[in-house]
Design brief:
The chain is an alpha+beta fold. It is 29% helix and 29% strand. Strands 10-11-12-9-3-13 form a 6-stranded mixed sheet. Helix 2 packs across helix 7. It starts with 25 loop residues before the first helix and ends in a 6-residue tail after the last helix.
């Protein structure tokens, strides 16, 4: 079963122009002085006018970045079917709760044994969706749902990322309790969400898109109290390219 009509990239041209895909809080990002670029049809924040300060935040405290453009594709089926499809597409073994799997830039995160969320760069979302639909069409009672617009997503980067989360939830993110690649559905700021540790100082937070403005406000405020700030993708990419504790 396919829910292709939910895919943002399935939007039809209007008067010959394809609609630009936007963050649900683009207006709030603009209020902070965001500069944008186009990436795979999405309007993406590159910076907020002070790249040096944003890079310093990711290196020394914490940077909060809106990553609404990430593809979020949910595979639903019987646990055995889900496990076999994921193994087929990632060349890996059985999935396990609590652990994300990174394969060719795509994170595979089990929400339950019968529901896995694939998180992809925007350039690969359509490709991954096609692969999932092709694999699921070969079995009975499997579906692929594009949740890209249903979930908001923020990245927290920097040595004070854990401290920022600690101000909003009870999940223990100390390295010996929550390792790189660990994934957990958890209440954050009294809102249902999911947290994936992508690197030593890099976390991805997923939540209902309807809470995007609230979550953004909570985390940027917490970051600023710790000497951090809102950052764009330029700072995240710069830190990742130097291997300074941030690995997507």
């Amino acid at each position: 079963m396919s829910f292709e009509f939910l895919a943002p990239d399935a939007a039809r041209p209007v008067d010959g122009t394809v609609p630009v895909l936007r963050s649900p809080i683009e207006w709030a990002l603009r209020d902070r002085g965001a500069n944008f670029t186009d990436r795979a049809g999405w309007r993406v924040v590159t910076d907020y006018g002070n790249h040096a300060a944003e890079l310093a935040a990711c290196r020394e405290s914490v940077g909060v970045a809106d990553l609404s453009y990430l593809g979020k594709l949910e595979l639903q089926a019987e646990p055995g079917i889900v496990s076999s499809i994921v193994a087929e597409l990632t060349g890996g073994g059985a999935i396990s709760l609590g652990n994300g799997r990174l394969h060719e830039e795509v994170w595979w995160c089990p929400m339950t044994m019968g529901r896995v969320l694939a998180l992809s760069p925007p350039e690969r979302t359509a490709e991954v969706r096609d692969l999932l639909e092709a694999a699921s069409s070969a079995v009975s009672f499997a579906s692929v749902v594009d949740m890209t617009s249903a979930y908001g997503s923020n990245a927290l980067a920097g040595p004070l990322s854990r401290e920022t989360f600690a101000r909003t939830m009870a999940l223990d993110l100390r390295p010996n309790h929550f390792e790189v690649r660990d994934f957990a559905p958890v209440s954050v700021a009294r809102t249902p969400g999911m947290v994936l540790r992508q690197g030593p100082d890099l976390y991805l937070h997923l939540f209902g898109a309807g809470f995007a403005d609230y979550i953004w406000t909570v985390f940027v405020d917490a970051a600023e109290h710790l000497g951090g700030r809102a950052v764009g993708t330029a700072a995240l990419d710069a830190v990742a390219s130097t291997g300074e504790g941030v690995h997507a």
